[in-house]
Amino acid sequence: MTPHPSNFRFRPPFQGTPSAVAAAWLVGMLFAFSGGGKLQADESARNRAFETELVPLLRTYCYECHGASEGDGDILLEKFSSPDQILQERKLWLRALGQVKLGSMPPADGPSLDRDTRERLVTLIDDMANAVNCVKNPNAGKVVLRRLNRYEYRNTIRDLLGVDYPAADKFPGDDVGYGFDNIGDVLSLPPLLMEKYIVAADEISQLAIKTPPPAEIYYIEKAGVQLTNAEKYASDRGALGLYSQGRVDVAPELPFSSRFTLTVTAFGTQAGDEPVKIDVFVDDKKVGQIDVEEEDPTEHTLQFRMMRGKRKLELEFANDYYNEASDEDRNLFINHVSLSGRDERITYIPSTELPSSHRKILFQLPDAENKVTPHQASEKVLERLTSRAFRRPAHRTEVRRLCDLAAKVRDDGGSFEESIQVALQAILVSPHFLFKVERNQPLGPDGQSLPLTEFELATRMSYFLWSSMPDDELLKAAWQGQLSKPNVLRNQVARMLKDRRSNQFIENFAGQWLQLRNLSRAAPDSKQFADATPEIRELMKRETLTFVAGVMRQNLPVTSLLDAKFTYLNEDLAKFYGIGGIQGDEFRQVSLDGTTRGGLLTQASILLVTSNPSRTSPVKRGKWILENLLNTPPPPPPPNVPELEKGVLSGTLRERMEQHRANPACATCHNMMDPMGFAMENFDAIGRWRTHDGSDKIDASGEMPDGTQFQGVDELKSLLVNQRRDQFVRCLTEKVMIYALGRGIEYYDKCAIDKIMVELQAKDFRFAYLIAGIVESQPFQSQGER
After folding, report:
1. Exposed, middle or buried, 283 (CB in 10 Å: 0-12/13-18/19+)?
2. pLDDT at 659
């Protein structure tokens, strides 16, 4: 994505006259002590409101269908005799609250409910069902140990090591909860995934760290070996026999200069007062001697330095002995000779040929003079690497265990690089890397939730906004104990939103919130909609993601997502829309003034994922709005109701839908969904504008259950932005909070959400303040229960 570049910053804290400050403080305290609701939190006030206001309204508008004995849908409202009983079945009342908000209750054939009375009923149910003490020990929610999902794993490996590992192709798909794939409750760790993590750790370590090339091996049977006074030993041992002054000459072509290890597998027939001896020469210069005391093949080693290029290596039988009287004969037999060495340019001297990940990880190397030992270098390298991988300072015991592991690799003949590779593999399969681990501490002495540590806060922020680990600046602020300070925190949020890594928030949050990931699975009829190629569908997705990023980075009101008169297009997508004057493959901001488009509801990505393969679907489009923009998902359809295509309905699509709604079992939900879906009928199944569906003229009018009428998508957008603005903003706030916390929203989160809503309204509902409000909220910054 290439979002529109823009800078924004938060305004400084409120400053004003002492009286203004006092007034602001008083309003804030009144809000806090009211528990975020419009009624007083004390029990007597709630009981009085229940008896004198809520029950009379329920009796007038609800009990006829949901009385004490025969409740439609098994919902019996008359049985509730106190606010406490409402709290015991909070979920049922929250469902009722959603229906009243939307206007689907009371039903069209029930008593008429005017706007003011409806708002009062909403307020009363909201206060009763969401009653919670927001002052005394507010609940931060249950914290679940969260595993990195596939996208977070890939981003973390990239930012930690500089390696792009395609985790989405390597790992099984992550489960989804509450609409997102970063929810702790569903991110399990099955054995298959653990096996994948082990394989990935090995592959990633080899990509990140370059080890010396394999040792060059020279066997005496290879070409280039000269035999002097040596012959094949006539036995099944397969050796060469060296008699008198026998010699083996090896002419290796060395690719590098190094201290090489010569390995000779040999045995001898012993005679005289000393063992068989081999003199070793390099370029006619003696570099050492090997004693062969065994009468069975045994390995012997000798180390010496050799320069790169073609060298002359000689192994000479040095102490021939023969006693004619006793017939004692000393001879040497060589099975094979090998030569191995490590490239010192790689082992000790960083090279431009090394990948950047290698140089970043191995910032400290042992030196040839042993001023920095391999253990000292390992300790420095692994302490920094572990601290960054675990997103907190590594404990000394953790570093010591990793250093011991690296030392074992070196003791077994591995290089320094190989030892760090193995230690890195251990880091990458550690729970402290694979999970976002937070301290497991009990609640405070008064039952209050304790704040996160600075490093835990940095981790929550980075995975919220970047789907990746904290960068050095976040970790530095955490190390200094400054991150949780309000001004520092807001400055960091502003910085993180401007950083390109925040594209991951757009990709992963907006991609799931708006169901854009379904685009790849969409299958529009290829005969009817030949223009909807996979390439165009990918451009549709990019338009929407870039648009959301633009609203965020320009810090526009979040309602701009619904009614903005601009989007982001390139030439191909502009042609698809019938918009001229755009050339090139690059996406750029384009004004939509004078067009029929503007906002999410007119973008082809949304219109396509809410359609059927061969036609539009007002039901799917209306349901999408209810679920994703108003947070009022309709209940599942009743059983044994035929699909529209399988019924005996006839006429236009609207006429068939009206016949479908004639079934009382269908009417309640369809009366909510269909009107909003029909307002979008001027866009076909792949998002192109139209005025007719075949020979039928499009009727894009709609009427909500509460009597609100609108004509076409523009008036629908106006309805959402003006009359249902708070419902949309609250829906978006809850969706973002679910994504940020990695858990579902609970009733006690109302305190934090109410506070964010008040602050958002004061800031004109601008996007950055939504993000900042969530980061500053008590659920985000506190441990909660375990």
Report:
1. exposed
2. 65
Give the C-alpha distances (Å, rounded to integers) separating 310 from 251, 442, 767.
Answer: 7, 70, 68
Using an 8 Å Cβ cutoff, are 340 and 263 in contact? yes
**Residues ≥6 apart with Cβ < 8 Å to 769:** 10, 759, 760, 763
In which band, very low, low, confident or very high, does the pLDDT at 7 lie, cut at 50, 70 and 90? very low
Q: Which residue has the higher pLDDT, 233 or 104?
A: 104
Using a 10 angstrom Cβ sphere, with 0-12 exposed, 13-18 middle and 19 or more buried, the burial of residue 781 is buried
Question: 365: exposed, middle or buried (C-beta count within 10 Å: 0-12, 13-18, 19+)?
Answer: middle
Residue 81 binned pLDDT confidence (cut-offs 50, 70, 90): confident
For the record, the structure tokens of 65 come out as: 């269908």
DSSP three-state, residue 165: coil
| Burial readout 244-281 (b: 16 or more C-beta within 10 A, e: otherwise) | eebbbbbebebebebebbbbbbbbbebbeeeebbbbbb
Q: Report how far Cα 64 is from the mean position of its chain's Cα atoms.
A: 49
- Name, in order, each residue with C-beta under 8 angstroms of 744's C-beta and a sequence gap of 6 or more: 177, 178, 183, 185, 738
pLDDT of residue 12: 36
Give Cα 558 distance to the centre of its chain: 23
Ranking 115-124, 320-329, 451-460, 502-511 by mean pLDDT, the lowest is 115-124
φ and ψ of 66, to 5 deg: -125, 55
Beta bridge partners of 310: 253
**What does the pLDDT look like over 649-680, one tens digit per residue?**
556 777 777 765 666 556 666 778 889 999 99
Confidence band for 70, pLDDT divided at 50, 70 and 90:
low
Give CA–CA dist 414/345, Å, rounded.
16
E-only strand ranges, 626-718: 692-693, 696-697, 701-703, 709-711
CA distance 405 to 417: 13
Provide the b/e sequence for 77-116 (b: ≥16 CB within 10 Å): beebeebeebbeebebbebbbbbbbbbbbbeeeeeebeee
Vertex 436 angle, CA 431 and 437, to 5°: 70
pLDDT of residue 48: 87
Side chain identity at residue 652, one-letter code? T
Q: Is 113 helix (H, G, I), strand (E, B) or coil?
A: coil
Give every CB contact of residue 749 below 8 A, 6+ residues apart in sequence.
Answer: 141, 734, 737, 779
Give Cα separations from 713 to 3, 153, 323, 339, 679 (angstroms).
Answer: 26, 40, 112, 78, 5
Give the model confidence (pLDDT) of 367-383 as tens digits: 877 789 999 999 999 99
Alpha-carbon span 262 to 286, nearest angstrom: 14
CB 418 within 8 A of CB 401: no
Kindly give the residue spans of alpha helices, DSSP state H, lying in 319-393.
344-347, 356-361, 374-389
Residue 721 is classified by DSSP as I
Q: Which residues pair with 263 in a beta bridge?
A: 301, 338
- Cα separation, 436 vs 439, in Å, equals 10
For the entire predicted model, the pTM comes to 0.78
Separation of alpha carbons 644 and 638, rounded Å = 14
Strands 588-591 and 692-693: unpaired
Per-residue pLDDT of 284-309, as tens digits, reads 999 999 999 999 999 999 999 888 88
DSSP 8-state secondary structure symbol assigned to residue 296: S
Q: What pLDDT is attached to residue 108? A: 67
H or E stretch covering 428: helix 416-428
